[in-house]
Design brief:
Layout (H helix, E strand, L loop, with lengths): L1 H22 L2 E15 L3 E9 H4 L1 H5 L4 E14 L8 E10 L7 E10 L8 E2 L4 H12 L4 E10 L4 E15 L3
Antiparallel strand pairs: 1-8, 2-7, 3-6, 3-8, 4-5, 4-7
């Protein structure tokens, strides 16, 4: 009888411990931003940049090894610093994500027929591919929290001279225990 009571007590203690740990979860919302400079003498462009999320966000840095979950709440882009003609447009643009060495490339966004001048300074929703978002989340969750973004495509004419700012609204859940 005492053995059964001890087992029941142990199970109840374990359940209470698990519930207490989950109550210690920390949820934080923050933004990650990066600017990608596109400068090409032709109508084609190909740029790679690194996002070091731990360096960009004190929240990622603080909870680095305790992150349980990451959500991308919203992805946006803004065209800035545009120098070109009134009819210059991006015919097609693809953005991929990969690990810091360029491995495991997955498409996060593809856009077509983007007339640049009207978008200058205007924040727009970035259309995303869920597989690319999932890859980005995996890279954010695990040290070293670095993601390589590769942006490439073609415009209706060159030269190209603009900056695209990518912004991701992120929610992180971590448990410091």
């Amino acid at each position: 009888m005492l053995k059964k009571i001890a087992i029941i007590y142990s199970v109840l203690t374990a359940i209470l411990f698990i519930l207490a740990c989950e109550k210690l979860d920390v949820k934080e919302d923050f933004g990650l931003e990066m600017e990608i400079i596109v400068a090409s003498a032709t109508a084609d462009f190909d740029v790679t940049v690194m996002l070091d999320a731990a360096a960009e966000s004190s929240i990622i840095d603080e909870y680095s090894t305790h992150i349980k979950d990451i959500e991308i709440l919203e992805a946006k882009y803004t065209i800035t610093n545009f120098v070109g003609t009134d009819d210059q447009q991006i015919d097609t643009m693809t953005i991929t994500v990969a690990d810091e060495t360029g491995g495991g490339i997955v498409n996060i966004s593809t856009m077509n027929n983007i007339l640049l001048p009207p978008l200058v300074g205007k924040e727009e929703v970035l259309p995303v591919n869920q597989a690319g978002v999932s890859r980005f989340i995996d890279l954010l969750k695990s040290p070293p929290h670095k993601t390589q973004f590769h942006l490439y495509g073609t415009a209706n004419k060159g030269p190209l001279d603009f900056t695209i700012k990518l912004k991701f609204d992120v929610r992180m859940t971590a448990n410091p225990l």
